[in-house]
Specification:
Maltoporin, Chain A, about 850 residues, five-stranded mixed beta sheet, 7 helices, 2 domains, 22-stranded antiparallel beta barrel, mainly beta, globular
Length: about 850
């Protein structure tokens, strides 16, 4: 039944592909080029229309155009998002061809940001119907993050916990398996296909045009993993002038304030260093080329495992390479694009990215005192990873503004582990998309079809019904979205998608829908509302994992069902300008509902699988379960701006506060059962008997007890605050000083403590059990955390810059997820050179 629906729906886009041919009797050909008046860069895909006529065209990828007009006077309009509309009176004579070169002026960039992720075509940020934040490359350069997740962490409403993105409290701890936020690079998903998780170090941070963070259910356009949102990293193409950029940095971690926590010898502080480079240029008039590289070495701040702390485990559980956390990686990426002059509007390209990585990871701390920065026995794993992707694509924009796009990706990942947890996966992804602006009807159409096929071979994903270590997954979908503007003020949007999954022969499918509205009340004042559904099929890892880490088992659930959701929000955005400083205030209320909500539960699950038990403590382990219905309402406020005060001082600001109240709606639902010990009767597991909450009634937040009156979801941060501000002072003085720029920046982040964790960790936090000290830590520490960063820089002629960057300025020893230490203070020196 699902397959018949899918075939019928996939045929719909082809109804729109035919476009009528136009003929122009006695027309004269007008040709020319459209460029940016400031940078002199050519502008692709500029809309060109003729007043009182249906004929028109657009510039090609190289900024050139041709337009056929009858002799006489014509009012020609040039328009593109991000630039002031330009109208020209053109006189066409019979004598022959006419050349027309156009320069367009950018709108005030302090007040306008252009995004694509919301609807898959360019829009002004204030006119979209959903919540979206944009991270600019200047913020990335100023903060110098070692991987892209550290930059995304500056976004209001987003937290990176255990390398997992959480958007507005929509997800908790899942040990890197499955994600409700999809990560994309240039509109194509970049998640490990078998585990459904991002690989942050693999993303080319040295070549970022901007990062668009879309909040709320985004499944209609971006598929299954976008249940809570999508993060789209857009890379840059070569410009008319060649560009070379080199970034070198080195830093060191500070010892904790409490010397008893220091896991390394005194004076032997761990360090990190890296270098990245980018070169982009045009090869002739038809070819763009970009080449980038990144090399990084981090000695890590988490020390090695200690066996003598836990007598339950024997020496075989200790890693042979027991050196503590570390990372070494090398990555090379490229992009090439061919735009033939003879076929205007056609672009053919190929992008690629290759990475080799060695990494040591620890899942849990040893304890909350002397073992705060040490690994729990057996939880340290050494990985050697090799992965690459190749992205061939073709786009074509014809003179009737029909845009055809075919994008493909082959993604290979090979992970070798010293604990017998080797995995490799192949993923082939393809998407055809068609866009059209129907000028007479006044609406935009986006429609497309996609398919993704994964083959995964793994020593850990063996919990399949037949016990095989090989799994296959097929995902296919068709989507359609229409958007129309009424009265030049009201934008209405509607969309639908049908999603089909098949994993190891088991199939499922479901349609999802979205709708939205944006009203420009006055100039600079906007009200928006949106509704979007989501549908997520569990990853191969969530269903079939079988392994052990640090005495904890990971157990399969082959019957895990897909989860679905909807997100509704209403928001208000006010743009403002104070002389040359512009920005916006955005206030939004949101409501998320889930069915068959998938959560990661700790318990004695190993006693249900005596044949699968490895080296575990008391059968302790984790399993993914459907937990019924859940709800996450909340509010969010964002303040952002950029501009100059006077002639010399520039300010950049990004800040926000998010409050969520994530709760289960079925706290007494039996979600599973396990035997406390082998041979005993099974115990039913519900939220009420598996969750443990911090008692807020005591001044320090002490007291960890089950509390059935509060139904907070586990491993959630309810209060999240972010501020990042940068001051740049330049163009002053005389002589050489006039070409210098000084910068100072600061960031502050507030995380409220995770009040709710698995009760299992509390019950077995004893010397003879787990002995992690998590109960002691939660009872004796204020779990709310402020983290501060600082940076100062000096640059010359916008070519060379030196900066000192300090993260965790106050050297706070803290956790976001209990039993997982965050980094102590780090201090680094950065040198950046541009040609």
């Amino acid at each position: 039944m699902h397959k018949r629906y899918l075939i019928a729906l996939l045929s719909i886009p082809f109804l729109f592909f035919a476009s009528p041919a136009l003929s122009f009797a006695q027309a004269v050909q007008i040709s020319g080029t459209v460029i940016d008046s400031d940078t002199k860069e050519t502008l692709p895909f500029v809309n060109i229309s003729v007043k009182d006529q249906t004929r028109g065209t657009s510039t090609g990828p190289d900024g050139t155009f041709t337009l056929n007009l009858n002799p006489g006077l014509h009012n020609v309009t040039f328009s593109i998002v991000g630039y002031d509309k330009l109208m020209r009176i053109v006189e066409v004579k019979k004598e022959g061809n006419k050349s027309l070169n156009i320069e367009m002026l950018k709108v005030n960039t302090n007040l306008q940001t252009i995004v694509i992720s919301s609807s898959k075509y360019e829009q002004k940020q204030e006119e979209i119907t959903t919540s979206i934040e944009v991270i600019r490359p200047t913020l990335i350069e100023n903060k110098n993050p070692t991987s892209i997740d550290r930059a995304i962490e500056a976004t209001p409403g987003v937290a990176i916990i255990d390398n997992e993105p959480q958007v507005r409290g929509g997800s908790g701890f899942s040990s890197g398996l499955g994600s409700r936020v999809t990560i994309l690079v240039d509109d194509l998903p970049l998640m490990r296909a078998d585990a459904g998780r991002p690989v942050w170090g693999f993303i080319p941070i040295e070549n970022v045009e901007q990062i668009e963070v879309l909040k709320g259910a985004s499944s209609v356009l971006y598929g299954s993993s976008a249940l809570n949102g999508a993060i789209n990293i857009r890379t840059a193409f070569a410009r008319s002038k060649p560009e070379t950029k080199v970034n070198v940095f080195a830093g060191v971690y500070s010892a904790p304030k409490d010397e008893s926590m220091r896991p390394w010898k005194k004076g032997n502080n761990p360090w990190f260093t890296g270098i990245s480079a980018l070169h982009a240029r045009k090869l002739g008039k038809e070819v763009d080329f970009v080449l980038g590289a990144n090399f990084f070495w981090d000695k890590g701040f988490v020390g090695p495992e200690e066996l003598n702390y836990n007598p339950v485990l024997d020496s075989s559980i200790i890693s042979k390479k027991n050196v503590g956390e570390y990372e070494k990686r090398g990555r090379i990426n490229f992009a090439i694009r061919y735009m033939p002059k003879k076929k205007e509007g056609l672009a053919i390209g190929l992008s690629g990215n290759f990475m080799m990585q060695q990494q040591g990871e620890a899942t849990f701390w040893l304890n909350d005192t002397t073992g705060f920065y040490k690994s729990f026995p057996g939880s340290f794993i050494n990985f050697t990873n090799f992965m690459f992707y190749l992205d061939p694509y073709v786009t074509y924009l014809n003179k009737q503004n029909d845009r055809h796009s075919l994008k493909m990706r082959y993604f290979y990942s090979d992970n070798l582990s010293d604990r017998g947890q080797n995995t490799n996966s192949h993923n082939i992804y393809g998407e055809y998309q068609y866009q059209r602006l129907f000028k007479k009807l006044g609406f935009n159409l986006v429609t497309g079809v996609m398919t993704s096929y994964t083959i995964a071979n793994s020593q850990v994903f063996i919990g399949t019904p037949d016990g095989s270590n090989r799994s296959t997954q097929l995902n296919a979908a068709m989507y359609l979205q229409l958007e129309k503007k009424f009265f030049k003020r009201l934008t209405l949007l509607g969309g639908a998608r049908f999603e089909y999954f098949e994993i190891n022969g088991e199939s499922a499918g479901k349609p999802v829908f979205r709708a939205g509205a944006n009203l420009a009340v006055t100039e600079g004042t906007f009200i928006r509302a949106s509704f979007g559904q989501g549908y997520r099929f569990p990853s191969i890892g969530e269903r079939y994992i079988v392994t052990a880490v640090g005495g904890f088992g990971f157990y399969p659930n082959a019957g895990l069902k897909p989860e679905s959701s909807y997100n509704a929000e209403i928001g208000f955005k006010q743009m403002f300008r104070i002389k040359n400083f512009g920005g916006f205030v955005d206030v939004v209320g949101f409501w998320q509902e889930y069915r068959n909500f998938v959560e990661f539960y700790a318990g004695g699950w190993g006693n249900n699988y005596p044949d699968l038990q490895q080296t575990t403590i008391l059968g302790a382990g984790f399993q993914f379960l459907n937990t019924g219905r859940a709800r996450v309402p909340g509010v969010e406020v964002t303040l952002a701006g950029q501009g100059k005060i006077g002639k010399h001082l520039e300010i950049q600001l990004l800040s926000g506060y998010t409050y969520t109240h994530p709760v289960t709606l079925q706290p007494d639902l039996v979600v599973g059962s396990y035997k406390p010990f082998i041979g005993l009767d099974s115990v039913n597991v519900t939220y009420l008997n598996s969750a443990s909450l911090v008692n807020d009634n005591k001044p320090t937040g002490s007291g960890v007890t089950p509390d059935s009156s509060v139904r907070l979801l586990k491993y959630r941060i309810q209060h999240l605050g972010k501020v990042d501000i940068q001051f740049n002072l330049g163009n002053f003085g005389k002589g050489k000083f006039n070409k210098m720029e000084f910068g100072i920046g600061a960031a502050a982040r507030f995380y409220s403590g995770m009040k709710n964790i698995d009760q299992f960790f509390i019950d077995f936090d004893t010397p003879g059990g787990l002995g992690t000290g998590v109960r002691h830590y939660m009872e004796n520490n204020n779990l709310n955390v402020w983290v501060f960063d600082m940076r100062v820089s000096v640059g010359y002629k916008n070519r060379i810059k030196a900066a000192i960057i300090v993260n965790n300025l106050l050297n706070k020893s803290y956790v976001l997820r209990p039993m997982n230490a965050e980094a102590p203070r780090s201090t680094q020196l950065q040198i950046m050179y541009k040609l």
